[in-house]
Structures are given as structure tokens and as C-alpha cells.
Amino acid sequence: MLDEIKYWITNKTFDHIEIAIRFKHRLVSIHSFPNGNGRHSRLCADILIKQLTGQDGFSWGSHNNLYQEGELRTAYINALKIADTGDYRQLIEFACS
């Protein structure tokens, strides 16, 4: 995964925002922890976008608690499921909202 991300950055395969979001999506799919995978992957995406652009990070739906049930979490999960099909637009929009 990291080699792929490095390739995307070096070859400018996608813009920086899409690279960070694709990285987040891949990282959350690994599911390395019993809990907190979304928070971990969002943090990593924020760190990557900061490194690539100097931008502070994504807003992720205005920093509301995405681990609590509700409309915001539902929108986030739906965006992740759509990204599972290869369409990252909704996840990018959510991250930047």
C-alpha cells in the first residue's frame, strides 16, 4: 500500500486530496484494530495532506463524532461504501465538508 501511495505522489497520478483520501480508504479497509480504524485512518489522511500541501487537514463533516450513530456517521459510512466500488467523489466531498 505504501509503495502504491508513493507511486501516486511521485507520478502525480491523482491530485493531493484524492491521494490522501485513497490512502485513508485503503488504510481503514485493513482494519488493524478492533475499534478506532476510522479515527486512525482519518488522522493519517490529515497528516498526509499536511505533508503534501501544508493544509491543516480535512474537516470530516465539521469534526463531529463519527463514531456516534446519526446522520453524519451514516453519510460517512455511505461514502466509504461507494469508495469501495472505486468512486471516491463522495468520500472526498465528505472529507472536505
Quick overview of this protein structure:
The protein contains 5 helices and no strands.
Write the layout of secondary structure elements.
Blueprint: H1 2-11, H2 16-30, H3 37-53, H4 71-84, H5 89-95
Cα-based radius of gyration, to the nearest Å: 13 Å
First-to-last CA distance: 26 Å
Task: Report the structural category.
Answer: mainly alpha
The first-level CATH class is given as Mainly Alpha
Q: If classified by CATH, what would the architecture be?
A: Orthogonal Bundle
Strand % is under 5%
How many strands in all? 0
Structure overview:
The protein is an all-alpha fold. It has a single domain (2-95), classed as Fic-like fold, CATH 1.10.3290. Helices cover 65% and strands 0% of the residues. It has five helices and no strands. Helix 2 (16-30) runs antiparallel to helix 3. The termini are far apart.
